[in-house]
Design goal:
The complex is a heterodimer of chains A (about 425) and B (about 230). Helix content of chain A is about 55%, strand content about 20%. In chain A, strands 1, 3, 4, 5, 6, 7, 8, 11, 13 and 14 form a ten-stranded mixed β-sheet that branches. A two-stranded antiparallel sheet of chain A has the order 2-12. Chain A has a two-stranded antiparallel ribbon with strand order 9-10. In chain A, helix 11 runs antiparallel to helix 13. Chain B is globular and about 50 Å long. The chains are: A alpha+beta (about 425), B alpha/beta (about 230).
Chain lengths: ~425, ~230
Amino acid sequence: MSIFEAVRLALRTIVTQKLKSFFSLIGVLIGVTFLIAVVSIVQGMNKYMEDQFANRLIGLNTFTLSRFPMINTGNVTDDMWRSWMRRPRITYSDAQYVEDRLSIPAVTARFCSDRMVLEYEGKQAKDIQLIGTEPTYFDIKDIEIARGRVFSPLEVELGQPVLVIGSELAEKLLPGLEPLGKEIVIRGLPYRVIGVAAKRGTLFGLSLDKFAVMPFRAPARRYICPLNVLDELEVKVATPDLMLAAMGETEALMRTKRALRPTQPDNFDLQNASGALDGWRKISRVLFTALPGLVAISLVVGGIVIMNIMLMAVAERTREIGIRKALGARRRDILAQFVIESATLSTVGAALGIGTGIGLAYGVRALTPLPAAVAPWSILVAVALGVLVGMAAGVYPASRASKLDPIIALRAE
Amino acid sequence: MSDLVIAVEKLSREYRMGTDTVLALRELSLAIRRNEYVAIMGPSGSGKSTLMNLLGCLDTPSGGSYWLNGQEVSRLSDDALARVRNREIGFVFQTFNLLPRATALHNVELPLVYGGASARERRERAERALARVGLAHRMQHRPNELSGGQRQRVAIARALVNEPSLLLADEPTGNLDSTTSEEIMRVFAELHAQGQTIVVVTHEPSIAAHAERTVILRDGRLDSDTRNERVAA
């Protein structure tokens, strides 16, 4: 009897006993659902973290030079924190040194920021991220300007009191008003709005549009970082390879500038998008390590359920086995029939599980910002697991069936 | 090749029942020629079921030998016996023993499935066998959609589909009313006329009367072996 034949026979049995088959499949179904859904959701989270989180917060092909990492997805211990606080701050001369000597073509932006209260005609917007930087910042962070313009290098040089504001801040502070030309007050000094950024959306539910950007030398700079000091120097290059090269070069330049001996560790930090995700990668690795265990548990349970169902099937169909043997079925024919039936049953369960898993993944994608995408390899693994679990679960019942004495089996009711 | 389909020599079969040993068949010898139509009779406990199981290669004897169609089969392995059953023997049972969920056609195809025939060949041969027993119009019906007589005819078609050297029927009319029984016995008579070797195990003299020869067992031994004077139509 061919495999195809046996599969068809098994499918027919499954169809005639829909409810019973469904219950027997549920273990494999859940295991596979879990596999597909978790893999796609975790991969979706990875993609989200990379595309949205790291690339939007830090920027593509961009790294930042700062006193300590600005974005931490992992655990920061008190010791680490204390050692970071002992480091010298990044000064103008540090920045100048790197800007002047970096041999790889790069766009740089000096950057300072803090939370501030912004006012307009007595109305207040609290907890707004006020950024002092250079016009290159908008390229580096890929911030589009919806209305108006970005300030010019000359305005940076002269420290003009002008602002480019985020869309949510505009709606909050200047509802229904034409924002361009309005004067927003920061610590008693008026700043003229010259540009409004396009909406950037949210990240983990936090708005990315509640910010105001002013020229680096604007008067309010003194409220967000001390004189002669900057929070970060942002450096953007053309390609990921160049970024790594530029990071290496920057590290060397900074060590020279600060006269660090070879045995001394860096007393500054260079962070790029992938570096910012180190902590997250650990979490995702743990999930992927735990996943096989969790899937294995439900598959073992599912396998045992299928084995039971198959034992029942063998008992119920003893007479059928007797008939088949009388008509010339050999042991291996009966063995193959039941192993294939079991594998088919389990594979159908896996197929249903793939369906629900994909459904779950798409549900997550529709309802959350995670771009959960089903990994093709997880489907292949699921099918393979379905077949293997079914075969393993079917061997014992099938071997019992194949060893039945045809005379006794024919007498069975 | 010998003209004997069945040659049994001093065939014994004992069963162990706890500490007792029951001798179901005691050194029985029997020969059946090609195209013979033999009824095996005997009261219950006479060993006729045991003999039928041995003749059908469903069981192996404790002693003696059995040549089926010239091949010594009494010492074969399970799988080899399965092969012999598939090629040489067509079974017809009292309870029909059709697969309930399969169509008549599929039931008839079953021996060919285990014989390794191609799908097309199986279908053609199964259709021919069903037509031979007058069920060409019932091929796609399941057993529960067929009458008792039709079911038994499906079973006969299944028994014949591999052109076996021996058609072995065990109380083939036991579950049928007398009209249907007659109908089935007519099918047997036709097959016999076409050259089929048939062995019918029965306890009904009226069924045995259709055969040309009656073998009666008693206590595991041959009690009588007679040629029927007048073969019923």
